[in-house]
Amino acid sequence: MAYLFRQATADDLAQIWEILKKAIQRRKEDGSNQWQDGYPNPTVIQSDIAKGAGYVLADGDHIAGYCAIMINDEPAYADIDGKWLTEGDFVVYHRVAIAEDYLGKGLAQKMLAHIEDFALSNKINSLKVDTNFDNNGMLNILNKMGYVYCGEVSFRGAPRKAFEKVLTT
Q1: Range of the domain at 74
Q2: In degrees to the nearest 10, what's the CA dihedral of 166, 115, 19, 157?
Q3: For residue 136, what are the CA distances in angstroms to 44, 143, 169?
């Protein structure tokens, strides 16, 4: 199956929000407190799209996954309890979510591979990301994809595990 990784548009907002609502519910059912505080929400997604940071993995007219990708745009990462592998430019991504109908097909890993391509196309070889301590799905994916645990960062008053992957060109 050929998926298209592309920038999200305003027309995608309803599908993206549906994906995130279900992901928020799954996190809750998993007993996690991640995404249980009103974030993310449609305003955040609208802002991602307006800034050109929202990206989707599309299967024809259906959106299979969503994430936000930014370059050097994560102030919380300056204050890490630990140490990043690299200094300098980095790509950061947030709000990774896969649509319910597409779960279990390895699409989160496929999306992360597209993010690696995005970084390299922008001549950046550092990917940084954080996740909740109890987000086992994401922790497993980061481990499988060669990310290195670098320490803790804090978001909205809560500690998060921070990871980096250095890409070779």
Answers
A1: 4-166
A2: 40
A3: 24, 10, 29
Given a cut of 70, whether residue 1 has pLDDT beyond it is: no
Amino acid at the residue 34 = Q
* Structural domains of the chain, count: 1
pLDDT in tens, 67-120: 999 999 999 999 999 999 999 999 999 999 999 999 999 999 999 999 999 999
60: pLDDT confidence band, cut at 50, 70 and 90? Answer: very high
pTM of the predicted structure, to 2 decimals: 0.94
Q: Residue 9: which CATH number?
A: 3.40.630.30
- Sort 50 into a burial class: Cβ within 10 Å, 0-12 / 13-18 / 19+: exposed
- Coil vs helix vs strand at 23: helix
> Tokens at residue 61, please?
């007219």
Helix%, strand%, coil% for the chain, nearest 5:
35, 30, 35
Residue 28 tokens, joined? 């809750």
For residue range 18-34, what is the model confidence (pLDDT) as tens digits?
999 999 999 999 888 88
d(CA 96, CA 120): 19
